Amino acid sequence: MTATDPALTALAQGWTALSLLHGRLEAHIERALQSRHGLSVREYSLLDVLSRQHDGEGGHLQMKQVADAVVLSQSATTRLVTRLEDRGLLMRYLCPTDRRGIYTDVSDAGLELLEEARPTNDAALREALAEAAGDERLTPLVQAVEGAGVPPTVPAA
What we know:
Blueprint: H1 6-37, H2 41-51, H3 63-70, H4 74-86, E1 90-94, E2 102-106, H5 108-133, H6 139-148
Helix pairs in contact: 1-5, 2-5, 3-4, 5-6
């Protein structure tokens, strides 16, 4: 394959389109969350992920799992947790069965802020997707994102 190979060109164009869509969505949501709730997209994502933890087997996430879920390095996730803890939105405590483990939970203030911010996040995502759908380079990706959470229908027999 050469640098001008059509398959490579198409692949690069696809990657560029995906990157463009991600950047547009994140920037739109970031502006909405910052202006209305003082949260970044990453902060919102972290609160959302941690709010879905539960008691019981496998209910609390390890920091690596949290980092993977919010698409950050472990060190960046730890810094983000510290910032939100300093704001009173998260709290850390020792694992009751393994004193080496530290859990992170969303505080009542964090849950309240998350619930206030959730409609803003959802509306900003819908707005950004609708805007991006008007760009023919992004239309197939927008359709893929919109269909990603929809369970497939089973044809009637």
